[in-house]
Request: fold
Amino acid sequence: MPKIRRARLPNALFQHLLTRARERQLSRDDILAFAAWLDTNPEVPEGEWFKRFPGLIACGEDELVKTFRIPGQVPHGEEVF
Reply:
């Protein structure tokens, strides 16, 4: 199982994540919960996956986080616990 890549993200992807965080008005607590999870160096399944947090859903594919959704939006892929 791949681990999430945190370094050397493609610039376009990094900008997309920043834009989504702003557009979806993610709170400081949302971002801190996401960052704390990343600090655990989690493994994720190959293909599409998602991880639920109280105020956001991180969606990814393989080793990359691809976007943020908010509760109520439908994620795709395998849920990560």
The helical segments are 11-23, 28-38.
